[in-house]
Design goal:
The complex is a heterodimer. By secondary structure, chain A is mainly alpha-helical. In chain A, 65% of the residues lie in helices and 0% in strands. Chain A contains three helices and no strands. Classes of the chains: A mainly alpha, B mainly alpha.
Chain lengths: 97, 351
């Protein structure tokens, strides 16, 4: 319990420091942002926030991989749906004017 | 910033720690997806004011923007690719120049930062380039209209500005044939042009689609539709790279990216399929209109009318979206009508 309180205290201090830095108008690149995991109950959200706080490299890899995968998945899904409309989606004429 | 009372309309962002009106994110994704798919650009200049209005911290806006643009461009590129609008070879060649140019442009900005007053210089240079692009687009349209009236119509219709024809005459080896775009030129032409557009993009701190799309048309000689598709391919790759670097700096709200992508998936299909029913010059003119509005918003920001700038951008997005949806609707209705008239089961008198 004591260690939990200490962790919360550290996060709160860091968050305060970060807000103060914003208020002071420092450059965004120099601010250290810590995700507040105390308010997160969803395990997925918690995992994202934890990864962000502990391992930025892993977070960066996840961000790119998930963005690409989600983009590709949505692209395929929407493609399939558009094909259902009956429009010809494989050819077009190029007319400039 | 709560617009409506219902709590379910707000999503907690785990990293930024703010509650965001998620239908607003879907709407931004949809609008930028539509416009980006139609014009072949990322559209960061449209997303940032929208995210700000929704209450997104500025520190996260650019990175979130970048990742969303990468995913959205992937959806649009997939669709454009099926239409045959993406010249991958040209896109990859240009990527070399773009990356080098962006890095060089960023170095110039860092040098200017040390001298001070960089923001104002960047804004005025940006406004000047937007004015130049707008002039090119409208002058080109007027010239092409004159050509058409004079009966000078080529394979793809009348042409206005043809600066690329002079640039294609430069025969510095190696010469490369870009089959999809339909021309052969020195490999140094696309590399050089993309280096300059990349340099400007790095200097101005933008994605570069706004500059690259007209450069592909006027300087490299791509038909408009192929310029749109190829540019989106480049935006996709540079967006993924940008998403990685901004994630490393801790400046991405990944949950917002996914929410925006759901809207963008629908918008990107609308924008991309609409290009099928639009004439090249229709796309160019609408692009010119967007560029003019973007230019005025930059000038308004320079004079600290931030709210007016945001309102102008959001109004522009709304108008262009409606225009694109109208093109798609009209084209689709006509296509269905012509298909029905060709269907023998519907023809009177057939057995």
């Amino acid at each position: 319990m004591k260690s939990l309180n200490l962790t919360i205290g550290v996060i709160a201090l860091q968050t305060f420091a970060c807000i103060s830095a914003w208020a002071g108008g420092e450059k965004a690149s120099e601010i250290v942002v810590v995700a507040d995991t105390r308010v997160l109950s969803n395990p997925l959200m918690r995992y994202i926030a934890d990864t962000y706080n502990t391992n930025l490299w892993l977070f960066a890899v996840w961000s790119v991989v998930l963005t690409a995968l989600f983009g590709a998945l949505l692209g395929l899904l929407m493609d399939w749906l558009m094909n259902k409309t009956g429009l010809d989606l494989n050819s077009r004429k190029i007319i400039e004017h | 910033m709560e617009f409506f009372g219902s709590a379910w309309l707000y999503l907690h962002m785990p990293i930024a720690g703010v509650k965001i009106f998620w239908p607003g994110l879907v709407l931004i994704g949809f609008s930028v997806g539509t416009i980006g798919g139609f014009f072949g650009m990322g559209g960061a200049w449209m997303v940032t004011p929208g995210l700000n209005i929704l209450g997104f911290p500025m520190a996260f806006a650019i990175g979130t923007d970048m990742a969303h643009i990468a995913g959205k461009s992937m959806i649009s590129t997939m669709r454009h690719s099926k239409f045959g609008n993406v010249d991958y070879k040209l896109g990859l060649v240009m990527l070399v120049g773009t990356m080098a140019g962006i890095e060089f442009g960023a170095q110039i900005v860092m040098y200017l930062e040390r001298l001070g007053n960089v923001d104002s210089i960047v804004r005025w240079v940006y406004a000047a380039f937007l004015a130049l692009i707008a002039w090119m687009v409208f002058y080109d349209y007027v010239k092409a209209t004159r050509q058409r009236k004079a009966g000078l119509v080529g394979e793809h219709g009348a042409k206005g500005i043809t600066w690329y024809a002079a640039l294609h005459r430069i025969k510095i080896p190696p010469m490369v044939n870009f089959r999809v775009a339909g021309f052969t030129c020195s490999v140094w032409l696309p590399i050089g042009v993309s280096f300059i557009t990349g340099l400007l993009a790095g200097f101005l701190g933008i994605g570069g689609g706004l500059l690259r799309m007209p450069a592909l048309v006027y300087l490299i000689g791509c038909p408009t539709h192929i310029a749109v598709g190829t540019d989106l391919f480049e935006v996709m790759i540079s967006g993924l790279y940008g998403a990685f670097t901004y994630s490393l700096k801790g400046r991405i709200e990944i949950v917002a990216v996914f929410v925006m992508l759901t809207g963008a998936a629908v918008g990107a299909q609308i924008g991309t399929v609409a290009t099928k029913y639009a004439q090249g010059y229709g796309i160019r003119l609408a692009f010119g209109f967007a560029v003019v509005c973007c230019m005025f918003s930059v000038i308004l920001k320079e004079f600290r009318y931030d709210l007016a700038a945001a309102v102008l951008i959001l109004t522009t997005i709304g108008v262009i979206c409606l225009y694109i949806i109208k093109i798609l609707w009209k084209g689709a209705v006509e296509e269905f009508r012509s298909k029905r008239s060709l269907d023998p089961r519907r023809m009177p008198g057939t057995i």
